[in-house]
Write a structure and sequence with these properties.
With 66 residues, the protein is mainly alpha-helical. It has a domain at 21-65. 59% of the residues lie in helices and 0% in strands. The chain contains three helices and no strands. The longest helix has 14 residues, at 21-34. 0% of the residues are buried. The model has no long low-confidence stretch (mean pLDDT 89).
């Protein structure tokens, strides 16, 4: 018999975003195409954006973390 396993909580933070409908549609279509969750695609896009910031913005962001 299979046993119920409760997954550990992840360190995610819940935020509410108001996004244009066309962007939501594009992200959802991409998620469907890649068989991923909407959240996973949004997280990947945000990580990519942060990794590829303008150098000046990247430096300012790093200074805020200190």
């Amino acid at each position: 018999m299979n046993k119920l396993k409760i997954p550990e909580n992840h360190s995610g933070v819940s935020k509410t975003l108001r996004l244009p409908e066309n962007i939501v549609d594009d992200i959802q279509n991409l998620a469907n195409l890649k068989n991923l969750s909407f959240n996973k695609v949004v997280t990947s896009l945000l990580e990519f954006s942060l990794d590829n910031l303008d150098e000046d913005d990247k430096k300012e962001l790093e200074n805020l973390k200190k």
